[in-house]
């Protein structure tokens, strides 16, 4: 019967002292069941993608996980990729954590009215003192913007992000690691966050501009200069869509791994499985791809341990 379906025999997992995360993920691949199997497939595809010297590889993720300890893992893996596409909130949280006094653990069930009165923002179960966010960003950004716009009056968004990354003295910073390793960071929703708002405030009423068309030209060149392309996409929305949108013009992604908690049954982009992207030509029919359902703060560290170590 097993041969009739070309299936592998399901093997039991075993725990042991000294078991590594990579070994555990390998066992998940043999266990054959549910999300564990998809996670192991994701690790295998990421490893294959990053090992393919002909593949231009994209990393996309939303801002929310940058408020957590996942920031450190994202900063660590950025040198493995050729480009990052993310939301402006990523810039906000990354710089706020580099320049401020830190974010704090809370819970999902706290009294939000009380937090508001105390000047504390809640992001899930992460607590962000207001002055460690808006205030610290304004104080940190304005002198840098003044310096940069004294040099020239028009910057591409990617260029501006790179310059900030050069000036962040935090090895755990996503922007710092991207600038250090010359990995471009693109934010297609540039003004949808505090970073963009500060640029608007600084430039409004002056001849200073931000050239977002320049970013799209760079992305276009990156895609069309590649022989093959791959992507590790964490969460949906604009960061995921901008990856698959641009790659459709080159025939679609050759490798794709998508981690999501969203449901596909509301028709949302965040919920759409990668197989749906095949119908649009955004992922190739014969691509190596998998959608992994679950919380990226749990799944991504395991997947990356299985892929890289």
Explain what the structure shows:
The longest helix has 18 residues. The chain contains 13 helices and eleven strands. The strands form three sheets. It has a six-stranded parallel beta sheet, sandwiched between helices. The mean pLDDT is 96. With 309 residues, it is of the alpha/beta class. Helix 1 packs across helix 2 and helix 4 crosses helix 6. It is 47% helix and 18% strand. It has a domain of 137 residues: 3-Layer(aba) Sandwich (Deoxyhypusine Synthase).
The CATH fourth-level homologous superfamily of the domain at 1-54 and 227-309: Deoxyhypusine synthase
Helical/strand content category: alpha/beta
The CATH class name of the domain at 1-54 and 227-309 reads: Alpha Beta
Number of helices: 13
Report the principal-axis shape.
globular
Major sheet: 6 strands, parallel
- The percent range for strand residues is 15-25%
CATH architecture of the domain at 1-54 and 227-309: 3-Layer(aba) Sandwich
- Which fold name is given in CATH as the topology of the domain at 1-54 and 227-309? Deoxyhypusine Synthase
Number of strands: 11
Instruction: Give start-end ranges of low-pLDDT stretches.
Output: none
Summarize the structure.
With 309 residues, this protein is α/β, with parallel strands linked by helices.
